[in-house]
């Protein structure tokens, strides 16, 4: 029995009661939280570096790189334009009053149809018109009620 007491300290002994620890509130916890956040940030950065890009991201990057570069002489369309007298930076057309910049490319990445955006816009305008009519009717009814109750 005595041997077990010497191996394990008694919870009522002075060694447990008089332990001098840092008793400032929150200091050790803050340090632990900071270290945990640093580890988490390092892990996220490592994940971002090692992450394989999705097909959509790769397509978008390649498209952006391709759109930033100007067309060269190896492009058939550009070569045909040059044969007809076109020079880079010149406006299109016989009199030179056409467009200078190419028509911008609008890539549709969603799964909705071509006219879906216009239908959403139309529906939003209808909802706004209905809301305005409702508010107008409410204001008219309040004015009539004030008129009726104000006269009596």
From TrEMBL:
SMART domains: G_patch (SM00443). Residues 73-119 form the G-patch domain. Residues 1-12 have a biased composition (Acidic residues). GO terms for molecular function: nucleic acid binding. PROSITE patterns: G_PATCH (PS50174). Residues 1-65, 95-122 are annotated as: Disordered. InterPro entries: G_patch_dom, GPATCH11. Residues 32-43, 54-65 have a biased composition (Basic and acidic residues). It comes from the Eukaryota. PANTHER family: G PATCH DOMAIN-CONTAINING PROTEIN 11. This is G-patch domain-containing protein.
């Amino acid at each position: 029995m005595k041997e077990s007491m010497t191996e394990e300290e008694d919870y009522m002994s002075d060694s447990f009661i008089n332990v001098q620890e840092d008793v400032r509130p929150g200091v050790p916890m803050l340090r632990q939280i900071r270290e945990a956040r640093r580890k988490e940030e390092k892990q996220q950065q490592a994940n971002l570096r090692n992450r394989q890009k999705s097909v959509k991201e790769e397509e978008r990057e390649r498209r952006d790189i391709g759109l930033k570069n100007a067309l060269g002489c190896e492009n058939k369309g550009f070569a045909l334009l040059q044969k007809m007298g076109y020079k880079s930076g010149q406006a299109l057309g016989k009199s030179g009053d056409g467009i200078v910049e190419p028509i911008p490319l609008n890539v549709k990445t969603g799964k909705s149809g071509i006219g879906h955006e216009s239908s959403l816009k139309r529906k939003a305008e209808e909802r706004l018109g209905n809301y305005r009519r409702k508010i107008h009717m409410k204001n008219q009814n309040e004015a009539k009620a004030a008129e009726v109750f104000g006269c009596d």
